[in-house]
Design goal:
- The strands form 2 sheets. The chain has a 6-stranded parallel sheet with strand order 2-1-3-4-8-9, with helices on both faces.
- The radius of gyration is 22 Å and the shape is globular.
- By secondary structure, the chain is α/β, with parallel strands linked by helices.
- It starts with a helix and ends in a 5-residue tail after the last helix.
- Helix 4 (95-103) links the parallel strand 3 and strand 4 (109-115).
- It has one domain (32-252): Alpha/Beta hydrolase fold, catalytic domain (Rossmann fold, 3-Layer(aba) Sandwich), CATH 3.40.50.1820.
- Helices cover 39% and strands 17% of the residues.
- It has helices at residues 2-22, 47-55, 70-81, 95-103, 126-132, 155-159, 165-172, 210-219, 234-237, 239-252; strands at residues 32-36, 59-63, 88-93, 109-115, 140-142, 147-150, 178-179, 197-202, 223-227.
Length: 257
């Protein structure tokens, strides 16, 4: 009788364990998000996305990197990552994608999100990849001391065609000039090889060829969306779609989906 009872207890324990495993709580979403801007702009452009993410309960930081050199920018982003209290989704727009591909090796980073961004492999440069997939703009100008900007006359059409005209014109005349060296600095880290990634292709982008964006996304095996009518300023003009992709990354970066 005792033997029978003992066997019954073991059976009940096994069933309870199996049920507990089957009903285990899903992996908690990542709470921290760091947003990284691209060339010619500053972090203010992230505000529409920032507002959505904060409203949805995320802790969001916007990196204010200086655009003075690739190393300076990566260091600035890593400084923000060091301030996070746990796993973090790192998001980069445009040139910011090259920055997060390097900074993404940081142990805080659980996943990477590229928004119309460069996702370089080791040894690649933005300039070289841009020659393989030429963009549509002829607006790039260079200062005497080696910084680049977009001709304000062409900025609205080439960078921000789907933004209100007044906003695009203001941004054209409020550019953050960017060291030309950042576009020719070879990548030394490709964090997308070891971290899960998500990608938003801007289908009407004139600054980065959409086919180059698609190449980056496919190569990284990224969870990819394509946004119709989106200019390079897609993170400002389509904040709902961009925020939804970032939240998808936050929900699934830790569970391998």
């Amino acid at each position: 009788m005792k033997t029978c009872n003992l066997r019954s207890l073991f059976a009940i324990a096994a069933l309870a364990l199996a049920a507990g495993t089957a009903n285990a709580a899903p992996t908690a979403p990542v709470h921290n998000i760091v947003l990284v801007h691209g060339a010619f702009v500053n972090g203010a452009g992230w505000k529409p996305v920032y507002d959505i993410l904060v409203k949805d309960g995320y802790h969001v930081s916007v990196a204010a990197h200086p655009l003075t050199s690739f190393n300076d920018d990566v260091t600035a982003v890593k400084r923000i990552l060091a301030m996070q209290d746990g796993p973090t989704i790192l998001v980069g727009h445009s040139y910011g994608g090259a920055v997060i591909s390097n900074a993404g090796e940081d142990s805080h980073v659980a996943g990477l999100v590229y928004i119309a961004a460069h996702a370089l492999d080791v040894g690649e440069t933005e300039a070289a990849n841009g020659k393989l997939y030429p963009n549509a703009t002829k607006a790039v100008k260079k200062t005497d001391d080696g910084f680049l900007y977009l001709d304000p006359a062409f900025y609205p059409a080439d960078f921000a065609a789907d933004l209100p005209k007044a906003q695009a014109e203001f941004e054209a005349n409020a550019q953050s000039l960017t060291s030309a060296s950042v576009f020719t600095t070879p990548a030394t880290v490709a964090a997308w090889k070891t971290k899960p990634s998500w990608y938003a292709v801007a289908k009407s982008d004139r600054i980065i060829n959409p086919d180059l964006e698609r190449m980056y996304a496919k190569r990284a095996n990224a969870h990819t969306i394509e946004i119709d009518g989106a200019s390079h300023a897609v993170y400002e003009s389509h904040p709902q779609e961009v925020a939804a992709l970032i939240e998808q990354a936050a929900q699934h970066a830790l569970d391998g989906k």
